[in-house]
Amino acid sequence: MVLKLKIDSREHSELAEMVIHNCREINVPYEKEWLDIGDYTFGDVCFEAKSAFDFLQSVINKRLWNQLDNMDAKFMNNIVIVYGDFRDAVENYLMYVNNKQNARLLRNKFDGAIGKIILDTDCNIIWVSSAKEAARIISVVCKMQPIDREIHTPSLIRKRIATTDLRIDVLCTIKGISVKKAKLLIERFGSIMEIGEASVEEICELEGFGKVIAKRVIDVLNKEDKMVIT
Q1: Strands 40-42 and 45-51
Q2: In this structure, are 21 and 106 located in the same domain?
C-alpha cells in the first residue's frame, strides 16, 4: 500500500494549493479526505498548519490546546506550522473582534503559546514567513519520512541537578522529564517500580505527558540493557 499525504477536504487555502503543487513536483502521493484531526497527515505524522492570525485566534479561544491533545493521542510525530507576519495577524485580529486590545498583550499571548508548546507538549512548532515556506516543509517531511536513512536517536537519559528525593533524581535523568513531571509521576503511582508497570495511557492522563514521553519513561524503566547517563 502506497503511503499518501492526506489533506483535509475542507482545506481550500492558498497553503493547500501550494502543498499540492509541491507534492506533484517531488512525487509525493496525496489525496483529499475528511480529517477529524490535523490539517495534513502522512502515516504517523500530523500537521496542524495555521496562519499567524489563525494561531493567535486559536490561542485566545483556547481551541489550540484541544487540537494538540487530539494530535498527541493519535500520532507519534506532531508538527504545528505557523506562517505569516505577527503584525498583520494583530491588525487583522483587532479588526475581526472590533476591539482596541493591547497589541503587546496579544504578542505576549502569541509568544507564550509558542513557549508552552515547546516546553509542555511533544509537538514540534515551526514559524515561517509565508505559506510558501510552510508548504515546502510539509512536502519535504512527507518526502523524507519513508526513506531508509540514518536516523539520529537522542540518548534517553541525561544528567540532572540532585533534589532531596532520590526517586525524583532518578526520573529526572530521563530526557523530557522535569522535576515537576517527576513529582506528578510519584504522586500518581507512588514508586518507580509502579511507574514502570503503568501503561502509556495511564501516564498520559497526567498533565503535560504525551505518548512519546510516556513511552520513553516506560522504556527506560524496563530496559534490561546498560543505560549510560550523558
Answers
A1: antiparallel
A2: yes
Digit-coded pLDDT (tens) for 34-57: 999 999 999 989 999 999 999 999
Q: What DSSP designation does 3 have? A: -
Kindly report, residue by residue over 120-131, the tens digit of the pLDDT. 888 899 999 999
Which three cell numbers, joined as nine digits, stand for 66?
484541544
Say yes or no: 123 and 172 in one domain.
no
What's the CA gap between 38 and 169, in Å, rounded? 36
Are 40 and 6 in contact by the 8 Å Cβ rule? The answer is yes
For 96-102, the CB contacts below 8 A with 24+ separation are 96/53, 96/57
Residue type, 230: T
Range of the domain at 204: 166-222
Give pLDDT, residue 72: 85
Q: Determine the Cα–Cα distance for residues 14 and 41; give it in Å rounded to an integer.
A: 18
Q: How confident is the model at residue 194 (pLDDT cuts 50, 70, 90)?
A: very high
Q: What integer pLDDT is reported at residue 227 of this predicted model? A: 58
DSSP 63: H
Residue with cell 505576549: 108
d(CA 84, CA 107): 14
Residue 19 predicted with pLDDT over 90 = yes
How is residue 157 annotated by DSSP?
B
Which set of grid coordinates corresponds to residue 137? 516543509
Largest Cα span, the chain: 61
CATH label of the domain that carries residue 78: 3.40.50.10130
